């Protein structure tokens, strides 16, 4: 499903079958009017949006993609289409899709993949949306962290450390701190997914009582490296016991609490950045959606493998 040169009819049909229920529930057709006006719909709403999303993962122009779909028109007709869509219809479906819908789809796919008794990790990474006249994203430099910079964005994710599934994604401008964005991500994941989670790992940027309390209310233990200015109150609480252990032996603290599992986030960011370097959009809002789409396709690829294994 990622970076295809030519559409394989059999694989494409299997992928549409897997995505049908997911997209049909999210993008239902409008209710039929008693007095319909205008031409009847040529494609179900879920199908045209799904095809528009898949185009952003392929090495095709919109015209080439429309020609490829024309060749597999009989397959599209099996899913309710009258004919293969034109490039303008595909582009309009992709352009009009709100980013919030893509974020919601990422979490919805994660609900299928996440099993019980898993751990999560949270972190962020920088993306430069424009360098000179070339649209791309690379590792950030310190010069791009200025408040005046309009090019630098942070993408925040929370993942499963076991399956590397992305549970939720969001972005922020460079001056924003990670901590408040972390609390937003926790709300996006929700109680339903966190009921399957035991522990959440993070770095010092996510060390704070409100975030810890939010996770505790969901039955999740928040494990973060203590800050350098943390104060030991001399009590027997888990927080003070962990702080004393960290100050005496940081290595033993990391081994005891398995804090190394946090590095799974860097693995996911690495796969997204190294595996999807070709960004086609020339508009900033579409480019951010295109990066969001990479996280959705990352989850969908795991769902396809799981379905094939079953």
Account of the 3D structure:
This protein folds into two domains: 9-28 and 39-96, no CATH class; 99-197 and 204-217 and 263-309, no CATH class. Helices cover 49% and strands 12% of the residues. The chain has helices at 9-26, 45-55, 62-71, 73-78, 87-96, 99-113, 178-194, 209-217, 238-248, 250-257, 264-275, 284-309; strands spanning 118-128, 152-160, 166-173, 197-202, 221-224. The chain has a five-stranded mixed beta sheet, with helices on both faces. Helix 6 packs across helix 7 (178-194). The longest helix is centred in the C-terminal third of the chain and has 26 residues, at 284-309. The radius of gyration is 22 Å and the shape is elongated. Mean pLDDT is 80; it is low at 1-5 and 131-140.
List the helices and strands and how they pair.
Layout: H1 9-26, H2 45-55, H3 62-71, H4 73-78, H5 87-96, H6 99-113, E1 118-128, E2 152-160, E3 166-173, H7 178-194, E4 197-202, H8 209-217, E5 221-224, H9 238-248, H10 250-257, H11 264-275, H12 284-309
Parallel strand pairs: 1-4, 4-5
Antiparallel strand pairs: 1-2, 2-3
Helix pairs in contact: 1-2, 2-5, 3-5, 6-7, 6-12, 7-8, 9-10
Task: Kindly summarize this structure in a few lines.
The protein has helices spanning 9-26, 45-55, 62-71, 73-78, 87-96, 99-113, 178-194, 209-217, 238-248, 250-257, 264-275, 284-309; strands spanning 118-128, 152-160, 166-173, 197-202, 221-224. With 310 residues, it is α/β, with parallel strands linked by helices. The chain folds into 2 domains: 9-28 and 39-96, no CATH class; 99-197 and 204-217 and 263-309, no CATH class.
């Amino acid at each position: 499903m990622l970076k295809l040169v030519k559409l394989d009819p059999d694989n494409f049909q299997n992928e549409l079958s897997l995505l049908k229920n997911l997209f049909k529930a999210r993008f239902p057709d409008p209710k039929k009017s008693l007095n319909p006006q205008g031409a009847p719909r040529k494609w179900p709403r879920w199908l045209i949006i799904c095809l528009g999303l898949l185009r952003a993962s392929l090495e095709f122009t919109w015209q080439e993609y429309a020609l490829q779909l024309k060749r597999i028109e009989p397959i599209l007709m099996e899913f309710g289409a009258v004919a293969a869509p034109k490039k303008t219809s595909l582009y309009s479906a992709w352009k009009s899709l709100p980013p919030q819908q893509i974020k919601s789809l990422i979490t919805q796919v994660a609900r299928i993949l996440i099993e019980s008794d898993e751990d999560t990790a949270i972190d962020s990474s920088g993306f430069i949306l424009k360098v000179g006249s070339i649209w791309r994203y690379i590792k950030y430099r310190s010069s791009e962290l200025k408040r005046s910079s309009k090019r630098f964005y942070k993408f925040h994710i929370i993942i499963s450390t076991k399956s590397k599934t992305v549970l939720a994604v969001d972005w922020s401008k460079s001056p924003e701190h990670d901590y408040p964005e972390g609390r937003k991500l926790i709300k996006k994941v929700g109680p339903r997914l966190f009921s399957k989670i035991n522990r959440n790992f993070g770095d010092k940027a996510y060390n704070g009582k409100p975030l810890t309390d939010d996770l505790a209310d969901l039955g999740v233990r928040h494990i973060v490296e203590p800050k350098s200015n943390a104060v030991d109150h001399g009590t027997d609480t888990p927080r003070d016991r962990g702080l004393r252990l960290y100050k005496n032996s940081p290595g033993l603290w990391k081994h005891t609490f398995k804090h190394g599992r946090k590095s799974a986030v860097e693995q996911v960011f690495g796969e997204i950045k190294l595996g999807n370097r070709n960004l086609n959009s020339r508009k900033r809002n579409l480019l951010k959606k295109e990066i969001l789409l990479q996280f959705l396709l990352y989850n969908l690829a795991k769902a396809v493998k799981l379905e094939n294994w079953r």
